[in-house]
Amino acid sequence: MSEPTVFLASGFCRLRIDLSYDGTNYAGWAPQPDQRTIEGELTSAISKLAGVQVEPVVAGRTDAGVHATAQVMHVDVPKAADDIPNWVFRLNRILDPDIRILKVSAAADDFHARFSAVEREYQYRLADNNQIVLPLERYNTATWFRALDVDRLNEASSLLLGEHDFVAFCKFREDQKTVRTLKKFHWSRLDSGILTADVAANAFCYSMVRNLVGAAVAVGEGRFEKEWAQAILDNKERVSDSYVFPANGLTLVKVSY
Amino acid sequence: MSEPTVFLASGFCRLRIDLSYDGTNYAGWAPQPDQRTIEGELTSAISKLAGVQVEPVVAGRTDAGVHATAQVMHVDVPKAADDIPNWVFRLNRILDPDIRILKVSAAADDFHARFSAVEREYQYRLADNNQIVLPLERYNTATWFRALDVDRLNEASSLLLGEHDFVAFCKFREDQKTVRTLKKFHWSRLDSGILTADVAANAFCYSMVRNLVGAAVAVGEGRFEKEWAQAILDNKERVSDSYVFPANGLTLVKVSY
Question: Domain end: B83, B106, B129, which one?
Answer without folding.
Answer: B106
